Amino acid sequence: MKTYTINGSGGRPMLTDLHLVKHKHKSPLIIYAHGFCGFKDWGNFNLVADQFVDAGFNFAKFNFSHNGTTVENPELFTDLEAFGHNNYSKEIFDLQQVIHHFASEDIELVDSNKIGLIGHSMGGGISILTAAINKNIKALNTWASIAECKTPWTNWDNERIEQWKTTGVEYYHNGRTKQDLPLYYQLFEDFKNNKDQLDILSAAAAIDIPFLISHGTEDSSVPFSAAEEIKAASKNAEIFSVASDHVFGRMHPYEQHVLPQPMQEVVTNSINFFEKNL
């Protein structure tokens, strides 16, 4: 595994891991985009990366530039100002930067013509939006993806939205870390000002590469109906469902040496999908 940084939005460094197969020839690459309040190593993600490598895929995972972590503290939300200034447009830019890095650089053992993309939750939405405009992506797989760019204010009423506008900041309580994470109003402004570019369902309709939607039927964070909406909008997507929650039975920290059964089912199915389409 190689770890280095790629410049993201505002020039902020994105810590990136590249897990390489042990062959002498170039192999396809899978890029993973984490979700809201996530990071590249959430839930001992190396267990996932290792399985892709064992199946013959290089695997890259990275921290979005404004996800609240830093290069020095890649699993802690220590930069709350960055977190508060994150938005969908910045994450699309970040993912484009990562794809560009691997598609344009002559990286030993990486076949830049065979790049697949996985995105979880909000990262799933970002991946759909990006795959619709980036022709370097040859196959797309979402895990528990959102169907609209309204995280985390999906269920906020108009009064709270107006309060957000007035004060300039609202807070999201992270139940795991017990932190109240700031969300500046610019997040909502980015959504309002770029509605066409941030329309996930329209992007799904424009995607003509192989597309697999993986989703838990017991997901209380992003309901299974979101997967059905994306499927209905897409030309050729297929759904893989598993009886599980939003994170497929994982948690953070995750100290086990094997994946929970639902996550294992998703990973196995995802590998089969990329073996068929890359």
Order of helices and strands: EEEHEHHEHEHEEHHEHEH
Q: Which descriptor suits the 3D outline?
A: globular
Strand order of the largest sheet: 1-2-4-3-5-6-9-10
Radius of gyration: 18 Å
The percentage helix is 25-40%
**Biggest sheet descriptor:** 8 strands, mixed
Low-confidence stretches: none
Mean pLDDT value: 97
Structural class, by secondary structure, is alpha/beta
Note the beta-strand portion.
Answer: 15-25%
Count the beta strands.
10
N- to C-terminal separation?
22 Å
- Helix count, DSSP H or I runs of 4 or more residues: 9
Features:
eight-stranded mixed β-sheet, two-stranded antiparallel sheet, alpha/beta, 278 residues
Summarize the entry for a quick read.
The protein is an alpha/beta fold and 278 residues long. It is built from nine helices and ten strands. The protein has an eight-stranded mixed sheet, sandwiched between helices. It has a two-stranded antiparallel ribbon with strand order 7-8.
